[in-house]
Amino acid sequence: MNGWAKVNRSISACVVLLVVTLVQAGCGRGQVAESNLPSEAQSEKASLFTVSPEQLPHLRIGPVQRAIWQINIETTGTVDWDADRTTQAITQVTGPITRIVVDYGSHVRAGDPLLYVSSPDIANAIATYKKARDQQELTRKALDREKELLAHGAAAVKDVESAQADYNEAATDVQNSLQALKIFAITPQELNAAERQSAPISPELALRAPIAGTVVQKLVMPGQLIQAGVTTCFVLSDTSTVWVQGHIFDRDLPLVRVGDAVVETNSSFAQTFHGAVSYVGAMVDPDTRTTPVRILTRNPGDLLKKDMYLEAVIHTKTKKNILSVPVSAVLHDSENEPFVYVEVRPREFARRSVAVGAQQNGNVEIQSGLKEGEEVVSEGSVFLQFANSYQ
Known about the structure:
The strands form 5 sheets. Strands 3-12-15-14-13-16 form a 6-stranded antiparallel barrel. It has 4 domains: 27-69 and 321-388, Beta Barrel (conserved putative lor/sdh protein from methanococcus maripaludis s2 fold); 73-83 and 239-318, Elongation Factor Tu (Ef-tu), domain 3, CATH 2.40.30; 89-117 and 206-231, CATH 2.40.50.100; 120-202, Helix Hairpins (Orthogonal Bundle). By secondary structure, the protein is α+β, with helices and mostly antiparallel strands. Helix 3 (120-151) runs antiparallel to helix 4. It is rod-shaped, with a radius of gyration of 41 Å. Helices cover 27% and strands 36% of the residues.
């Protein structure tokens, strides 16, 4: 039994020796004298290692470059209806609803009927208008008759003046009764019908759409008694545009201006949405300590719905001079801290911690840790990270 244990220990020692030999053949630690290293490399002496000539073609190495970037600010936003294109539909008469002709999601044009209300107010208003028109016609005939008699010397001037006053009063009554019909949104066709003496008076009045848009809220039911000027029956909104309500932190607030272009995305949609900043708030939200920003956004196909979340990137008009490397050059350690591999000397690399910022077009901003012109590994960094873990 002891003999087999000795054999197993010998085999294990041979396997470990073989693994170490293979790793050193692919990536051996550089034997560089400390006195010959640059100051940056001296501080990284513990992580300095050498890549063999056979493995070097698998790496892509490039310089840290300086660039002028437009500053982009990332935020999240919530979709809301465009309040400038949203309105309530409120009836102008009191009575029960007899018919509802639209529902949630219905697309309507301005003036389309939404529902019908049965109300004695309509019949009374039309009757008052018809009486006023009849009285106006009667006084017009009386005025014409007095003028004809005056022309033949058979009437006094005061009689003509009295007839003219009666006609003017009747015309005023017609205009007053007509205004009441306009308040009730009586159409010209309904008004023409009301002027015909033989036409029956219908007690039904249509509540018509004040704007073109979509029915986004329906707040009434058939048969419900509604109050003139009080009951909100529907909410209509032109959903071709929406508001996206975002939030900006204090550090980014000086950079955001009305008119800045915004690109918005949602993981549920393949397409992007485009808008512009239309308002920057004047107060700070006490809960989030951010300033609200409103983004007027185009909504093709009505894909964006109220209360939906979007990721938004605000493209400000401010630019800055930065250092950048490809995004693929930046790795993260077990504590999620970013680092890169720097080529200290030909085939000799060191791990360098960095601070990163925004990303644009496949590159990432380097805020600290690198200098312009230093060579970093942009492709193959994962191989170096794996190889360095065995060193």
